[in-house]
TrEMBL record:
SUPFAM superfamilies in the record: PRTase-like, Winged helix' DNA-binding domain
Domain Phosphoribosyltransferase: 113-247
Highest classification ranks of the organism: Bacteria, Bacillati, Bacillota, Negativicutes, Selenomonadales
Keywords: DNA-binding, Transcription, Transcription regulation
PANTHER family attached to this UniProt entry: HYPOXANTHINE/GUANINE PHOSPHORIBOSYLTRANSFERASE, PUR OPERON REPRESSOR
Protein name stated in the entry: Pur operon repressor
Gene source species: Sporomusa acidovorans (strain ATCC 49682 / DSM 3132 / Mol)
Domain Bacterial purine repressor N-terminal positions: 5-74
Assembly and binders: Homodimer.
Protein family per UniProt: Belongs to the purine/pyrimidine phosphoribosyltransferase family. PurR subfamily.
InterPro entries found in the cross-reference section: PRTase-like, PRTase_dom, Pur/Pyrimidine_PRTase, PuR_N, PurR_Bsub, WH-like_DNA-bd_sf, WH_DNA-bd_sf
Pfam families per record: Pribosyltran (PF00156), PuR_N (PF09182)
Length: 272
């Protein structure tokens, strides 16, 4: 192949690493790809690290050793995080989003890729200390958010179903009580989806009383795995005592008035 210029290498390196956050690439991989010495690749990586750090886009980590390499860790600055959460709060407070029962229409935002990519990176940054092995959610609306969180962590996503599918083989099922409607419902998880001893981070779009999250926690423990944390995009302020503890919510829904069409929803800002 023709000799690759530095500018071309830097552009390609940035694209490859940004497309797969946290994935550990070996220097040999890039050396072979571009036909360049490892020392040259290291110089390119240094230039990328300086640029991404300067603009608050993320950082490049170097892992030493025979099995080491380099990886891109996306970062969302406190200023950008607060701006995004404020934007989401404003959009969710729009009067025509109110659904009977005190709920909000959120699907259009949840299925907007560039928004969920950033929210997933925010979850990763705030919860990476938990070092999960898997991201888990329940069908259906929380899937885009959980999927983008899994992407930011470079981890597989597992989806709990409300009922079982014969195409997924044998499954573990439990009954749980919805905290908001007090109805008994069923959720299931294929036995082969989650190995015993795995550390699981639960991600969902909305929490009211926490019944669904409690069901997922119980289901994870039923298959011998462990829940290390729970993250939700929106949680209601009431009831204050949820059926789960130690969860992270990015937005708090304080009140929805169906008559005045006023919604009180507030972001959990990093500056507070």
């Amino acid at each position: 192949m023709d000799k690759v210029r530095k500018m071309e290498r830097v552009a390609a390196l940035t694209k490859i690493m940004a497309d797969r956050p946290r994935y550990l690439f070996s220097l040999s991989y890039f050396s072979d790809l571009f036909g360049a010495a490892k020392s040259t690749i290291c110089e390119d990586i240094t230039a990328i690290k300086e640029a991404t750090g300067h603009f608050g886009l993320g950082t490049i980590e170097t892992v030493a050793g025979a099995a080491g390499g380099i990886r891109f860790i996306p970062r969302v600055s406190a200023k950008e995080t607060d701006a995004l959460l404020n934007e989401l709060a404003l959009r969710l407070a729009e009067p025509d989003r109110i659904i009977p029962g005190g709920f909000l229409y959120m699907s259009d935002l949840l299925f907007t890729p560039h928004l969920m990519v950033k929210v997933g990176e925010i979850f990763m940054e705030r919860l990476e200390r938990l070092a999960p092995d898997y991201i888990l959610t329940v069908e259906t609306k929380g899937i885009p958010l959980a999927f983008m969180t899994a992407r930011a962590f470079d981890l597989p996503l597992i989806t709990v179903r409300r009922g079982s599918k014969v195409t997924e083989g044998s499954a573990v099922s439990i009954n749980y009580v919805s905290g908001s409607s007090k109805r008994i419902q069923t959720m299931s998880l294929p036995k082969r989806a989650l190995p015993a001893g795995a550390k699981v981070l639960i991600i969902d779009d909305f929490m009211k009383a926490g019944g669904t999250a409690r069901g997922m926690v119980d289901l994870v423990y039923e298959v011998g795995a462990k829940v290390v944390g729970i993250g939700v995009l929106v949680a209601t302020a009431e009831p204050e005592d949820k059926l789960v503890e130690d969860y992270l919510s990015l937005l708090i829904l304080h009140d929805v008035d169906e008559h005045t069409k006023i919604t009180d929803i507030r972001p959990v800002l990093t500056s507070v």
